[in-house]
Amino acid sequence: MYLLDKIARGAQKYLRYRDGHIAVFTALIGLPLLLMVSVAMDMGNASAKRANLVAGIDAAALAAVIPANLTNDERIAYAKKAFTENYFGKEKVALDVKATRERVDIEAHIQVPTLLSGMVGKDFLDVRERASAVLTTNDVICALALDPSSAQAVTFKGQNVFKAPECSVQVNSSSPEAMISTASTPPSAKSFCVYGSHTGTYSPPARSNCTKIDDPYQGVPIPVSGPCDYVNYEAKQITTVLKPGTYCGGIRINKSKVTFNPGLYVIEDGPFQIVGASDVKGSGVSFALKGPSSFYSSVSQARIDLTAPATGTYKGLVIFQDKASNPGSTSTISGGTYVRLVGTLYFPTHVLNIGGNGDLGTLSEATSYIAYRLNFAGRSLVEIHVDHESGGIPPLLPRSDEGARLVK
Question: How many CA within 13 A on the CB side of residue 14?
């Protein structure tokens, strides 16, 4: 106890001492401590400003690399505008933007005022950040409209429900109403991209001013017609097996069970029609539509299971049209109790109506629709998948260049 009392009396005496050394001691300790706290606050403030700056330039780079029909100077201006819309700091930003069609690079610099760090000659903290974005080519396009200029090149109407979770919808038309949706359920896909513009609601929101996508099959040769193996062929209430060849006047299947052997079926000057409660199947088959009366039509009561070839000239094409044959005509694909179409349905100068009153695509591992115009309507569920490996066909074409990602 004696020792503790002595320490306490000594401390009280020390505090009552008036010669000034306590003030000196406090100044010597307090000022550095204050500076340390100030520097910590400055660094924390700069870190918050840096995060805001990074968010702004990342958003600007991603936004600026996507639009197709911009010059490099216009793309730079677009990036600066996008940065302004996504940066919420008060500091003046020095922005350096470099841009090409494939890549946008942005460097940003701000000076953040300090609190008390100026006492040691540091009035500002320099904050610099960089962001780069590039186009990606990973998206599969599973619905492509080739019409270059018309309104309603792609439509979604009525009670149709459209789902393409793994792939994209692309519209090449320059019209301000190139794609419209009045469907009761907003169509959904991995992305929607339109060269012109669009109306309606989409999930995710559709993009405008996208790059036109070339027809991936424009170089595929149309088969030369041989002598007619069949003329005006009709299967009516029968069970039969058909072999590849030239079918002049078309193929009509009515309430019949038909198996197509693997190979190429050239349908010359007539339709390929599947009506009634028919059962149609074939693996490794391609159907080429040629001539002034050619088109395709199926109804919802039919059971259809057709898979494109995995190899050869027409690999991946399950039904395709000669672009010079019957341009402006309409082909129709209807959903039903069982419809499995694996491969690409290619109608470069036809309007393709897709829908009906049943499901379409839910059983198909990999399907794509390429036509002059595409109309999705009716009371159907249209679902598109692109797992070509499970479907046993080559990768579906084309690929989209409208995605973007950040790179270091």
Answer: 10
Reported as a pLDDT band with limits 50, 70 and 90, residue 8 is very low
Measured distance CA(208)–CA(170) in Å, rounded: 10
Give the pLDDT mean for 204-229. 92
135 versus 384: which is more confidently predicted? 384
Residues 273 and 344: their CA atoms lie apart, in Å, by 18
With beta carbons less than 8 A apart as the criterion, state whether 300 and 378 touch.
no
Alpha-carbon distance 231 to 367, whole Å?
A: 30
- ∠ CA 201-204-209, nearest 5°, is 80
Q: Is the pLDDT of residue 363 over 60?
A: yes
7: pLDDT strictly greater than 50 = no
Task: Decide: helix, strand or coil at residue 234.
Answer: strand
What does the domain layout of the chain look like in residue ranges? 23-135, 139-402
Beta bridge partners of 11: none
For all residues of the chain together, what is the average pLDDT? Answer: 88
Cis peptide before 165 (omega within 30 of 0): no
Cα distances (angstroms) measured from residue 314 to each of 9, 111, 223: 103, 61, 10
Which residues, other chains included, contact 237 with Cβ-Cβ below 8 Å and sequence gap of 6+?
A: 254, 255, 256
Count of Cβ atoms closer than 10 Å to residue 138 Cβ: 10
Q: What is the mean pLDDT of residues 90-110?
A: 93
* Residue 260 CA: distances (Å) to CA of 263, 300, 307, 310, 312: 8, 20, 10, 16, 18
Please provide residue 28's backbone torsions phi and psi, each rounded to the nearest 5 degrees: -65, -35
CB count in 10 Å sphere of residue 14: 10
SS in 3 state form for 67-104?
A: CCCCCHHHHHHHHHHHHHHHCCCCCCCEEEEEECCCEE
CA dihedral for 369, 379, 289, 149, sign (positive or negative): negative
| Angle at which helices 21-65 and 72-86 cross, to 10° | 130
Handedness of CA 152, 348, 343, 253 (dihedral sign): positive
Specify the pLDDT at position 12: 52
Q: How confident is residue 14, by pLDDT bands cut at 50, 70 and 90?
A: very low
Report the pLDDT averaged over residues 38-55. Answer: 80
Mean pLDDT of the 164-189 span: 97
List the structure tokens of 343. 């491969």
Q: With a cut of 70, say whether residue 2 has pLDDT above it.
A: no
What's the CA gap between 130 and 54, in Å, rounded?
8
